Amino acid sequence: MAEASRDAARAAAPVMHGAVLDALGLEITGGQHAPGTALTLEHLQQRFGVSRTVMREVMRILESLNLVASRRRVGLVVQPMHRWRVLDPRVIRWRLDGPGRADQLRTLTDLRVAVEPLAAAGAARHATADVRERLCTLATRMRQLGEAGELDAFLAADVEFHALLLQACLNEMFTALTGVIAEVLAGRTEHGLMPKCPRPVALDLHDRVADCVAAGDAWGAETAMRELVEEVRDAISTTPEAAAG
Amino acid sequence: MAEASRDAARAAAPVMHGAVLDALGLEITGGQHAPGTALTLEHLQQRFGVSRTVMREVMRILESLNLVASRRRVGLVVQPMHRWRVLDPRVIRWRLDGPGRADQLRTLTDLRVAVEPLAAAGAARHATADVRERLCTLATRMRQLGEAGELDAFLAADVEFHALLLQACLNEMFTALTGVIAEVLAGRTEHGLMPKCPRPVALDLHDRVADCVAAGDAWGAETAMRELVEEVRDAISTTPEAAAG
DNA sequence: CGTCACACAAAGGTGTTACCTTTGTAAATA
DNA sequence: TATTTACAAAGGTAACACCTTTGTGTGACG
After folding, report:
1. CB distance from B114 to chain A under 8 Å?
2. Where would I find the beta strands (DSSP E) of chain B?
């Protein structure tokens, strides 16, 4: 039964359950199943053309993300949004890929406003010489690329810049947000929430952050980063598309 | 074989895999298996006296937390710490229960410093009348309990206070940290990282936060909360036990 | 004799199936 | 309305066949 979809799944992912997991995760976070809805393993395993074992493993992961709760005699009950592990990278990716991406980008940007200034301060205190130098390099590179309008390369440099700070601050909780923030940066370019050409203010602020970190000026780095990221937040919240979401 | 441990596991948890998961999670986050070590399903299922299916489901969850990576012909390879999903509540709980709790408390407190001020600001903007009132009530209650030296009740009020702020700010990313922060608060009392009697400064600051939120003064709430949580951080980092960890 | 390449075999995760147990839920009954 | 009963669906076990990976052994070539 369902040979076609089985083969498709196998081809798509070396591990079959990965494909099923993504599909279901997208559906649930996308709101295609109202909270309280009960799915059954039986039904799902037929739908995806996989065995019970595979379906159960997928279910366990979904359960561990609090997207569903497994109840005997009932099935997998879709949980309300407020129970989801919204900080998990997979949940974030699914939500960024589904409807409500604008919303997701806003809440994540608020998280950035909270975290990145302190990460910058931490980096100013703890970063190695290599990192300090690299940050300055990246900042000037971003200016060049930004002014040249090379958005892709700009994005790459931007991601590296912020990732570097999150790793250099020596707090693993902050570092754990690296991937998330990378996706936010990528996501907002993709969805046209960025001006065609980065604002000069943003470029200046990246420079300031890099300089302060290089100089070991924690407070300066924190302040500059706060301005930077608040600028981003304001830019997003005044963009029509975001406002509409 | 291993009848005893099987029955123990069954008795402990209605779902058997929960017990196994906790045990293994504690071991790995506790550093009992060096990164790169390969465990095998075969071995583990014998050790815990569970079937292969159950062991595989546990493994999938561990894998989804990036505590292990499953490789054919090799087994479950324990991942280095920097790959772990350190923001996941379970990982946090395991690490708080294992060695390195002091470390964990410090990194989490830094996270609090980042997040809670903005949560307070958000609450000042968005909280309902009920919440504003409740916060004031809690603040005065904390003063009474703190001065009376009733640490348990104080802790409960403290947890509710901070949880309320994280929920009222209407950013689900912040709200998702509620449980984590509750455990941090509980953890630091348990591990003697708190003075016998809460400092008056802290009590004053809770009051100030509540008042500012009640008044809709976002900036005031943010500042007060920042002072509060920085005070906590400094208190922890100067405590001998924490410094030793 | 030493080294490199290729072939083969074993180990262990991946996926499937069948079957039994346990337990909520809901329907039927008193 | 309260209680029993039946059943559906998850929880758990067992036994397979299969596919990848990897280590090792053998042979060819230098």
Report:
1. yes
2. 38-39, 68-71, 75-78
